């Protein structure tokens, strides 16, 4: 137990980096996902088709590979553009872009399904009452999309938290990498990887509770109806 | 495009070997994982609190932590224990291949167990009661009625899990295995052309994903024949 207590401050520093990456990923992913979903349901082929291709491809390849392409590929591109002495892509930025893209790809499907589940008649009714398109979106569609999408988005968040561990492989100083350092210097790998696992488990459990509350809150208009 | 063709001619053997190892890992892990998932699902549904609690705890641990941590726990972690290092199993447990397989099996069993559990719960209650009323024991009802029905209900969700597992096997490259991602990482550092190499690997992974979803679509069509014929 003593080594764990000694290394706890280091591990907590890593945990902060992990959380920062996960939250930034979710924000970027939500924005991308909403944009891609709007492109998919726009009814314009030139906009919808590339969105479908991109998300299909992203969902069919390993997250780890996406991260490697962006990290090493980004550095390759920068080197070609700026020549020798070019800046490198930081592990945090590469992780954010890779995980954000993946989150966005999946979220676009969640949003699209939620969009399509709002009956068309409701929007028509809104329009008939003189709502603008934006008002229909803001006051009629979005609140319902939100309710339907929360469970799916919750799963994506849980996945994103766990995927941040991958970024430790390209050098991000997250909880995973800090545990690795502690494991190497104490020669107690099992102990420290278990501590890392438990930290992730705590995040998962807290997230589960928060998501359940958000679901309840977003569905409060529906609760009585059931 | 020219670069991709050059890469393909120079490295096709490596990519083929890597793809083959990926396919082996996916097939073995999904078969063994499913074999473990069924008892796990039944345990979770058991009235015995200790049994269902243990199964739920297992499921929570493997679904609530990153697979990377799990693979490191097995590959680097097990050696911490004198008892394991001294055991006859150590020469086997030291192999990266074995460690990767153990991790994938334990991990996918947890996710598949949830899917199987959902499938069992989705079997109409009347069918289970009918089986019991016909005089089947619980084991017979499971074997002859519940599990076959649950199987066809589970297939679409299980197809997704196999794709996720396939993507997860890329982590084997972090413990020195040269599966598709491992080979790509080697080729990328050899050629200094990471984008092209990783895109090529990505294309192969994408084809594997398509193959898995096609395969399961066919299985689904076959195992739900009785439903379409009924119309």
Automatic annotation (TrEMBL), chain A:
Principal subcellular localisation of the protein: membrane
Cell membrane listed as a keyword: yes
GO molecular function: transmembrane transporter activity
Pfam families named in the record: BPD_transp_1 (PF00528)
PANTHER family referenced in this protein's UniProt entry, alphabetically: ARGININE ABC TRANSPORTER PERMEASE PROTEIN ARTQ, CATIONIC AMINO ACID TRANSPORTER, MEMBRANE COMPONENT
Family designation: Belongs to the binding-protein-dependent transport system permease family. HisMQ subfamily.
Gene Ontology CC entries for this record: ATP-binding cassette (ABC) transporter complex
Protein known as: ABC transporter permease subunit
Organism, as annotated: Mangrovicoccus algicola
Transmembrane regions listed in the UniProt entry: 12-39, 60-83, 89-107, 190-212
Residue span, ABC transmembrane type-1 domain: 15-211
Automatic annotation (TrEMBL), chain B:
Membrane topology classification: Multi-pass membrane protein
Localization in the cell: Cell inner membrane; Cell membrane
Keyword vocabulary terms for this entry: Cell inner membrane, Cell membrane, Membrane, Transmembrane, Transmembrane helix, Transport
Pfam families tied to this protein: BPD_transp_1
Record-annotated membrane-spanning stretches: 20-43, 55-76, 195-217
NCBIfam families to which the protein is assigned, alphabetical: HEQRo_perm_3TM
ABC transmembrane type-1 domain sequence ranges: 19-216
BP GO annotations: amino acid transport
Species name: Mangrovicoccus algicola
Protein name, UniProt field: ABC transporter permease
